[in-house]
Amino acid sequence: MVQMEGETVANSSQSDRSANDGDEAPVPGLYVVATPIGNLGDISHRALKILETVDVIACEDTRTSLKLLNRYGIRRPLLAYHEHNAVRMAPKLLAKLKDGAAIALISDAGTPLISDPGYRLVEQAQEAGLPVVSVPGPCAFVAALSICGLPTDKVLFLGFAPPKQGARQRFVEPYAGLDATLALYESPNRIAAALRDYAAVLGPRQAAVCRELTKTHEEVRRGDLEALANAYERQEEAVKGEIVLVIGPPDAKEAEEGVMDDALRRALREMTVKEAAQAVAFMTGEKKRTVYQRALALKAAMDGS
User: Fold this and answer.
1) Fewer CB atoms inside 10 Å of the end CB: C or N, the chain?
2) Between β-strands 102-105 and 181-186, what pairing exists: parallel, antiparallel or unpaired?
């Protein structure tokens, strides 16, 4: 075989294999195992090995997890562990860990603890000095970042936004002036309204709606927030599937406007529009008329909540 310049050729000899190649049996501890977000083929050899050999698998919904486990012929005891029974189940799982059990923690899809239950269990295991091991793999917002075509050098993951307009706008307000890409999970039933709310707060930023990632009908729709909101509002058929919304960072002018908007929103909670505009214009050096017009728009959006 001819080796090209800069090319690395793998040596497949048994003696060169790493001791941590995924074939080792799990030692006692809590294994946080990532599972596919859609395509069941997106699971690592190591994850399958762990799931095949642990003493018990803690999962959100046993019915959902069984689809994956049956696909690979894995037969291990399952325990439901989710936000509604965490207080009751965590002590039982910790007791098993202290007795020397190997337990895999999985979510319905993707990486556990990323907008999924499990934080308290991991925290308690760490505090008890018990081993906690990451078995990395699929994560929906990371997958979206890789194909959305927006900057990824600085990213803030916000998880799920509130479902109602006012709360949703307030949720994203603190990040209006942040020089970073934002990533959120959103419901298909609310995507048009959410895009409209984010456009009202963040302005005409570039964004990508990443839907049904790794599945048959995977789609990435790009545009500015307002254009995307218009497109989904005009769409006749219902939007379906899991959605990751990625919103690009502000440009330099938008960043300055974001700082002004933050100041105006704080002022408007305690002052009239005129008073808030005067105070922020003095603080920022912006023209009073410009600040006043922006204050009117923000006040209307806030009252509309």
Assistant:
1) N
2) unpaired
Distance CA 181, CA 150 (A): 8
Rounded to 10°, the helix 288-303/252-268 angle is 60
pLDDT digits (tens, 9 = 90+) for 145-184: 999 999 999 999 999 999 999 999 999 998 988 999 999 9
Confidence of residue 16 (pLDDT cuts 50, 70, 90): very low
Its sign, for the CA torsion 252, 254, 257, 258, is negative
Helix ranges, the chain (H)? 45-53, 62-71, 86-98, 119-127, 140-147, 165-172, 191-202, 225-234, 252-268, 273-284, 288-303
User: pLDDT of 116-138, one tens digit each?
Assistant: 878 889 999 999 999 999 999 99
Q: Which two three-digit tokens encode residue 153?
A: 């050098």
What tokens appear for 15 in the block? 């003696």
C-beta pairs of 187-190 under 8 Å, 24+ apart in sequence: 187/163, 187/243, 188/238, 188/239, 188/240, 188/241, 188/242, 188/243, 189/238, 189/239, 190/163
Q: What's the Cα-to-Cα distance from 229 to each of 88, 208, 211, 221, 233, rounded to whole Å? A: 42, 11, 15, 11, 6
Are 79 and 56 a contacting pair, CB within 8 Å?
Answer: yes
CA angle (269 as vertex; 268, 274 as ends), nearest 5: 25
The b/e string for 226-247 (b: 16+ C-beta within 10 A; e otherwise) is bbbbbebeeeeeebeebbbbbb
From the list 184, 122, 190, the residue with the least C-alpha distance to 157 is 184
Phi, psi of 141 (to 5 degrees): -75, -30
What's the pTM? 0.77
- Given phi > 0 = left and psi -120 to 50 = alpha, else beta, which region is 214? left
C-alpha Rg value of the chain to the nearest Å:
24
